[in-house]
TrEMBL record, chain A:
GO terms for biological process: chondroitin sulfate proteoglycan biosynthetic process; heparan sulfate proteoglycan biosynthetic process. This is Peptide O-xylosyltransferase. GO terms for cellular component: membrane. It comes from Aquimixticola soesokkakensis. Its main location: endoplasmic reticulum. It is a single-pass type II membrane protein.
């Protein structure tokens, strides 16, 4: 009782020879099918070099096309040779020229001897298969595919379209339930010979010859007819990426492969000398009869596919540049923008930094240059504060800053004096938390010692800029968490909104705010607004301020910090 | 209609490049032609250089270790012994020219010609003597593993952004000596100040930033040098580099990035320009006026170099390996694992 290997070979013949020799010398018969495309200059030396081994045979050569029937025909022929020539074979194991045994053959033999009636073949119905190429799953059994997908893609697609349009349906032979799975299976002699000697084989063959990728469905379907003992998994470790092509193993996967406890892996890079040298050594130590455990490899490859299809949110780089239509993952992490707060509170940045433990910048988009937390000409990632460099690509500047500081919450101040270019981007970014006290920009003007005519002009301009910005924040495209108060409303009870914002920023600081930020003295601000009105300007963004707000002030000073338990 | 006209225009632009390359072939004189050694499937490297003798020893060693099989050099009238040095190398074919670097589109015409003639069907790397190619798993896998994987994935071009490396302190504080790994001196880089926009005509990304933009181009960022490069291409004789190695024609070769959120695999070219040799080079190039847009770049260097600037800042990152660059998001493994 032993296991026989059927190898389908089309390139890197010297590796195939090495592996065939490895198996054959350990008393496992090998039947090799060499693709007809391989020139005889390469084929003949392979035959000659294996001539010393009586248990290596070659089967009739077919010209193999990926996705076509020829691969099944080649397999059938090779299996027939195997079953006829080697009586001692109880299991037939399908392998390719780039397969590599990871565990000693002895172990595989023992494993199979303990399960003499089990067929190891991945065989699942189409509903359960996530890995089909080109969106063809059930249709691969009901349409015809006479054109090669690799060489005549356009014809292939057009013909599929045509059949869909005319609703052409093939009849699946009676008694068959289409199943699919990896073509690297291991079947018992009993099952395999039953499939090959089936009285209806001609009918089946004719049907499958026009099925799409029959090597993934022929044996997988027929095995269900002859055996109830199907273990639906492959003994060959073979992982496919999102394009449906197998992942390749290299020398640096050595430890990973060793710990996988799989019997055979594919596909191995032909120049992975260390893998071949290690795993084909005869003095390989025997492991216990452990089950294959490719979990770790699965995770690595799943991650690689995810990296390719999803990428890292908020990263813009040479090989990832999501279009502007993509809303998800514009930026890599949540951040907060405060508008107006630093105008009505003294040292608001310091206070906020203590309250939330985040990095709090000043006005990042100030016309004089970015005011980084802690000052300085550069910030994380060597981002320069220079206004010209920043304004060269303001959105890229923000995404770069957030990317370079990932892991740490970023907060920054914003206002109508700043570069407004980022408004749309932050408004449509679900990661942004934007809190606005409208009209607060008037406070620095109120405090400034400038000519009133200049103040009036600037106030009018700032109000215009801010109202445009607010319009963007209030548009129905907005995805950011936006909160807007008029200045009058906000200073009525500042602690409640502050507490809400800070609670949302993070659970890091669970204790309640003990200390309120200090508000600037607004005595006379109402009168200041009235003066603006008197000059013909209409300051409306700050809400309703009484002209005389003197009685308001003392009450505010005495107010106790907001405490809720 | 517009799309067709566009397509047609690009076709003519490509043909024009190839025609230029054809015309400028006469400017090249073969000094040593060892191209008979080139075997099917060999990986080839193309390089234009002028007076870079001090860098060549390490450059050749670096790329031989990566698995490059044959080197094609165009020597633009060196007088420092570069030519003699290259003649002694068994795997180097060498051409020389006294013609204008600028008029040959900064060497692109010459290399386009040599590539058309010798590189058809080969994976080719086009780099400068101060550029060192880093790709995913380059510490454990040769470049052939990458090209085999690209072949299997039906990918024809591979992006590697230019990453400017610089020393800490004045540029001339640590002299570079021949054969030395330049990254022993210049091992700092900017990890996150790169600005990207898309060129809708040619379809490539335009990346600017890094220490050069920060230190030399603060008052005119639009003039800062482009950092996007596509140095590794499975060459076909109908291809042509369009603007240095920043972009190619046909345009499909420039689609080295994913626009739906995923990441394609990419590498980095470590750019060891900022060594003690830089000041002399900048002065020479400024006087020769053979560089891009009136040598603007070199003018900017020259004015700043007088006060011996320190490119290093406290946010500079120290280079460790490709995995670090991958984590920082400067390059990506894509779905290669």
């Amino acid at each position: 009782m032993t296991v026989g290997f059927v190898m389908l070979v089309h390139e890197e013949l010297h590796r195939a020879e090495q592996v065939a020799r490895h198996w054959a010398t350990q008393d496992c018969p090998v039947v090799i099918h060499v693709d007809r495309r391989v020139p005889s200059a390469k084929h003949d030396p392979l035959v000659a070099s294996l001539a010393d081994l009586p248990n290596v045979k070659f089967s009739r050569r077919h010209r193999c096309d990926w996705g076509g029937w020829s691969l099944v025909a080649a397999t059938q022929d090779a299996c027939e040779v195997m079953l006829e020539s080697f009586d001692q074979v109880s299991h037939v194991f399908m392998a390719s020229g780039s397969c590599l045994p990871l565990r000693p053959v002895e172990e595989l033999k023992r494993y199979l001897a303990a399960r003499p009636q089990t067929n190891f073949i991945e065989s699942v119905t189409t509903d359960d298969v996530p890995w089909t190429v080109g969106g063809l799953d059930w249709e691969r059994f009901t349409l015809r595919f006479p054109f090669s997908w690799k060489r005549h893609r356009k014809l292939f697609d057009k013909y599929v379209e045509l059949q869909r349009k005319f609703k052409v349906k093939r009849v699946i032979p009676e008694g068959l339930v289409p199943h699919m799975g990896s073509q690297w299976w291991c079947l018992t002699r009993q099952t395999l010979s039953a499939i090959l000697a089936d009285p209806r084989r001609r009918e089946y063959d004719r049907y499958f010859a026009r099925v799409w990728i029959p090597d993934e469905s022929y044996f997988q379907t027929l095995v269900r007819k002859y055996s109830n003992n199907v273990e639906s998994r492959s003994l060959t470790l073979s992982k496919f990426d999102f394009q449906g092509k197998p992942h390749t193993f290299y020398d640096d996967h050595l430890q990973l492969l060793r710990r996988s406890d799989c019997f055979v892996a594919r596909k191995i890079w032909a120049r992975a000398d260390r893998l071949y040298a290690t795993f084909l050594r005869s003095n390989h130590t025997l492991m216990q009869g452990t089950e294959p455990n490719p979990g770790k490899i699965d995770r690595i490859f799943a991650k690689a596919v995810e990296r390719r299809t999803q990428g890292r949110d908020g990263l813009y780089m040479q090989s990832r540049f999501p279009g502007s239509g993509v809303d998800r993952g514009k930026t890599c992490a949540a951040y907060s923008i405060f508008e107006g707060f630093s105008d009505i509170f003294e040292n608001f940045e310091d206070w906020l930094g203590q309250a939330v433990g985040a990095r709090v910048h000043g006005h990042l988009y100030a016309p004089e240059g970015a005011q980084f937390s802690g000052g300085g000409e550069t910030s994380s990632g060597a981002l320069p504060s220079n206004a010209r460099l920043r304004d060269y690509n303001p959105c890229g500047y923000l995404t770069a800053m957030l990317w370079s500081t990932r892991g740490e919450r970023q907060c920054f101040m914003f206002g109508p004096r700043d570069n407004q270019y980022i408004s749309w981007m932050v408004a449509t970014d679900p990661n942004a938390q934007i809190s606005v006290i409208t009209g607060a920009w008037a406070v620095p003007l109120f405090k400034s010692n400038r000519n009133f005519a200049d103040i009036r002009r600037e106030a009018a301009w700032l109000q215009k800029v801010e109202s445009e910005h607010l319009e963007i924040l209030r548009s129905n495209h907005t995805k950011a968490r936006v909160r807007i108060w008029t200045m009058a409303d906000f200073i009525e009870s500042p602690m409640e909104p502050l507490q809400a914002i800070i609670d949302e920023i993070g659970a890091r600081n669970v204790r309640r705010l003990a200390e309120a930020p200090r508000m600037v003295d607004l005595t006379g601000f109402g009168q200041f607004l009235q003066n603006l009105k008197n000059q013909g300007m209409h300051p409306y963004l700050m809400g309703d301020f009484p002209t005389n707000n003197e009685p308001d002030r003392p009450r505010k000073e005495q107010r106790r910090p907001y405490l809720v338990r | 209609m517009g799309a067709w006209r566009d397509k047609y225009r690009m076709r003519w632009r490509r043909k024009y490049r190839l025609f230029r390359a054809f015309r400028r072939r006469r400017e090249l004189t073969s000094v040593q032609n060892r191209t008979k050694q080139v075997r099917k499937g060999d990986i080839l490297l193309f390089c234009t250089m002028r007076n870079e003798k001090i860098r060549l020893a390490y450059f050749l060693k670096y790329y031989r270790d990566l698995g490059v099989n044959h080197f094609f050099f165009v020597d633009n009238d060196s007088d420092d012994g570069s030519r003699e040095f290259l003649l002694q190398q068994d795997d180097v074919s060498l051409w020389t020219t006294k013609a204008s670097y600028r008029r040959a589109r900064f060497g692109v015409d010459w290399l386009n010609w040599l590539q058309r003639k010798y590189a058809h069907g080969h994976w080719t790397l086009v780099v400068d003597p101060d550029e060192f190619f880093v790709f995913p798993f380059c510490d454990t896998r040769p470049v052939r593993a990458l090209t085999d994987w690209l072949d299997a994935s039906s990918i024809r071009s591979f992006s590697a952004m230019l990453l400017d490396m610089y020393p800490k302190g004045a540029l001339d504080a640590q002299p570079y000596h021949e054969g030395q790994d330049p990254m022993e001196i210049a091992h700092w880089f900017d990890s996150g100040n790169y600005m990207i926009s898309k060129n809708d005509v040619i379809g490539n990304l335009w990346i600017q930033g890094g220490p050069r933009m920060r230190a030399f181009f603060a008052d005119k960022p639009e003039a800062a040098p482009a950092l996007n490069k596509i140095p590794l291409v499975k060459w076909d004789r109908s291809y042509a580099y369009y603007s240095s190695t920043h972009s190619l024609l046909p345009r499909s070769l420039n689609h080295v990035y994913d626009e739906s959120g995923g990441e394609k695999a990419s590498g980095v070219l470590l750019h060891a320009k900022f060594l003690d040799t830089f000041s002399a080079k900048a002065a020479e190039e400024l006087s020769r006026r053979q560089h891009y847009s009136g040598s603007q770049e070199y003018k900017a260097y020259h004015t700043r170099l007088r006060d011996n600037p320190d490119l290093w800042c406290k946010w500079s990152e120290k280079y460790i390996n490709w995995r670090q660059l991958e984590i920082l998001g400067l390059m990506s493994k894509g779905n290669w694992a």
